[in-house]
Amino acid sequence: RTAFEKLTDFDYRGNTYYTIKNLSLYECQGWCREEPDCQAAAFSFVLNPLIPVQETLCQLQNETSSNNPSAAPQRSVNMYYMTKLQLRSENICLRPWAFERVPNKMIRGLDNALIYTSTKEACLAACLNELLYTRTSGRENWIL
């Protein structure tokens, strides 16, 4: 199934093959989801101070360096960068993105399982498929 990984205020180098102005973030992502050649969408936005209208630019990319683990994203202002993912999971929510990447940051203390995989996509799918077991107030809960 198709999902997206989002970066905020970062951009990756890529080959833009289609540019659309004045779409919403959800429309931009929808175009990328439906386009077989789209690997990523760069969505930039600027609020025009003279009129209360947000100007947006959606760039669909058919090549992106975001899939290269050694590629570093560049800082960018007012930008969402969404990498398209193909995951083997039925647990993808109906949210605009399934994962948000924050470069050089780590969430500590929430690593409940160690799963070995061969690809990033397999790791992300395993994360979505993992059942979390918690015990709260003497009751047992399974959390997806």
UniProtKB/TrEMBL annotation:
<dbReference type="Pfam" id="PF14295">
    <property type="entry name" value="PAN_4"/>
</dbReference>
<dbReference type="InterPro" id="IPR003609">
    <property type="entry name" value="Pan_app"/>
</dbReference>
<feature type="domain" description="Apple">
    <location>
        <begin position="1"/>
        <end position="84"/>
    </location>
</feature>
<protein>
    <recommendedName>
        <fullName>Apple domain-containing protein</fullName>
    </recommendedName>
</protein>
<dbReference type="InterPro" id="IPR052774">
    <property type="entry name" value="Celegans_DevNeuronal_Protein"/>
</dbReference>
